[in-house]
Every structure is written in structure tokens, then in C-alpha cells.
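Protocol step 4 of 6.
Sequence for Enhanced intracellular survival protein domain-containing protein (metagenome) entered exactly as in the expression construct, tag removed. Do not edit the line below.
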Amino acid sequence: MSIDVRPSPDAAKYLATDQLVWFGEVTEADAEHLRLGLPEDQRFVVDLPDGPDDLHSGIYGVRPMELVLPGGDLVPIAGLTWVGVHPDARRRGVLTAMITDHLARTHDAGVAISALHASEASIYGRFGYGLAVLTHQVDLGRGTTFTAPHLEDEVAGITTQLATMAAPGVRERMRACQLAVAADFPGTIIGTADFFALLARETPEELRDKEPRRILFARRDGEDVGFVGLRRSHKWDNARPSGTVTVGSFCGGPAARLALARRVVDLDLMGSTKLENVGADDPLLAWVGGPRGTGDLKTWDSTWIRLVDLEAAWALRHYEEDCDVVVQVEDRHAPWNAGRWRLTASSGSGSASRTDAPADVTLDVAVLGAGYLGRPVGGLLRAGLVVEHLPGTYAGLARALRTSLAPEPSIGF
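Step 5 output, C-alpha cells:
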């Protein structure tokens, strides 16, 4: 059965479907969340012939965003989000139809890359998305010591300033700061001004017994050089303050991050700090002496990357090592990518071209997505996710994809 995917004609019906799929509290602010979160022309729906009249069988949306690639270039991407299938329409091909539609629309728009945060880790690999970025959740005690002797002179010139995210001008400062430093942190995803407005919007329902989201800025010579979001929660234990400060993604260079980290672990009335989005190579782990210098450390998936246009995407990023490999690419959902490609990298630049030469390697397009931002993927051969026809060639490809530092985790979208 062919499943038709079309632009959403009814914002209220689209929103009601999302509310059923995600079964959260329904509030009057949800419509504003949709308005800020998704442009009207980036909302898409499926209606099965025997589906409900008042809701859609499936929905998805796309946020126009920008991604920092290895080498520092900022490129447009399609941020796939608001994906949902009506509970009565599961296992009927709705999700497959929507993802296939998304890839075709993205390709037609000339956008080479799609990205997402996965609600369930087992879903998106089969559609060609590769797990490209890992993130750590790190717990630290009050007054944790950070040791970085070669940064101290630079940190001495940095001050920190607390602001409320919803206050006038704060979200504009955040976006400007992120744009200014992003080139040094491949993997960073930057949203539009509306996306930052969405992040700053908090309803009374969301704020029950919670502090409004604060932003701690790092400043040097009167200019913002970094920031981090935080929220404190009260707790008293045996008449002693033992609250927790929950901290979001750090933005800024190493000195700015160090100044911010020292401030967030030493806030009054707090007993512990939970850092929710620390990159695999974030210097914070080195500053505390490694994983055992934390109270707890958990690892999660962050950004998943899908090469929508393999030829264009391969040429966009910088490569730290050369390679010349013929790859048989499997891609069921974007057939224009499928087939045999000669993937080369030389003096930092990459090129992908069609070839009839025998394949050195066979792999799914998801493998290239997983390594696209620099995360090591050499182990996928041992894992049985890659077939190597000429020994050693996949190792060369994996080395070319890899960057000296792991990619930066992105904020959820």
C-alpha cells in the first residue's frame, strides 16, 4: 500500500496528534511551542484511509538548523523532530513513509545532511542514521577541584555573570556567543532565533516548584566568551543545605568553560552538581582527574547524522588524513546514494565520485553518518557492520573520518 505524506493543513490537528503520541500534560502554551519550534512549511502528516478523523496517523517536522563540521565550516542541516505515529497506526509503514519522504524533500532542497536526537536508540539506524556523537552525564560534589595549570592566566581575566534566560536580550547574547565560538567545536548545532526563543519560553506548568532557567555567562573585557544554562533545586538533609544544580551544555573555549565549571560547583545552598551534556573529549574530565574524579558518569547517545546527499556531504568537511577507498554503499531509503563510490581525501579536502572499480569495502550509509563528525568508527568492522574486501582499506577510511578530538554533543531539538 502506498502511503501519502503531505504538508500539514491544520496546525491544531497536528498539535493534537503530537499530544497523543507523547502523552504529556496538555497546556494552552503548546500552540506557541509549535509556532516557535517548527515553520509552517516544515510540518508533514500521514492520514491512513482507515485512520482517525480527528487526528493524523503520523506526523513529523523539520527545524532548519546549522551544524559545525570538522574544519570549522557551518552548514545548513535538516533537524528532524516532532516524529510521531498514532498508537493505532504502528507497524503499518507510516514511519518508513515519513522518513523516506523527509529524505526526498531534504535532497530536493539541496540540503546534504539530516540530524536528530533519537527517542529510542533502536529506531533510526535502519533508516541510515548513524550515531555520530556521544555525551556524558556527570555528577560532581560541592567544591570539586578542577586542575588546569596552563589555563590559569587566561581564566584570571574572565568574570561570570548570572542572568535569567527569559530576560530581554539574553537569548540573543547566547546565540551570538555560540556563533562566535562554534568553529572550534565541530558537532555543535545552532538553531534559529525562534529556536532560542523556544528554549527561553517556560510556562507555569513547566515551572511548578522549579527555578526559572538561568544562564551563567563567562565574560572577558566586557564581551561574552561562553555560557551555560542551569537550574537549582532545594533540598535540606539533617538541617543542612544539599540542593542540586542541574547544568546544560557548555559553550565557550577551555578557559571560559573552566571559569563556568568552577562557579557552578560552588553555588550557595547546593550540595551537588549534575552536568547533563559533557562531550567525550570535554576537558572537564581531565580537570577532575578522570572518570573516578566524578561522583557518577553515564554515557548516552547525542546527535545522529544522516548523509542525505553522500557526494555533497563528503566534500563539505575537512579531513585530517588522506584516503582513497572504493566503497559499495547500501542505502534503501535514499537510492541516489546507493552504489559504488570512490571516496578520497587529500590535503584536507574530500571528493566522492561514481566508479566501476571493484569495491574495497561494503557498508551501510549509516556507517558514514556515524563517522562523519569525527567519532571513531574503526571498530564497526570488528562488530560485523562493515565488510572489507581488501584488507586494511576500511582502517584507512576510518582514520580519514576520525578527528583528533571527539565531536561536541548538541542540545536536544
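Step 6, annotate. Residues 135-300 form a domain with the Aminopeptidase fold (CATH 3.40.630.30).
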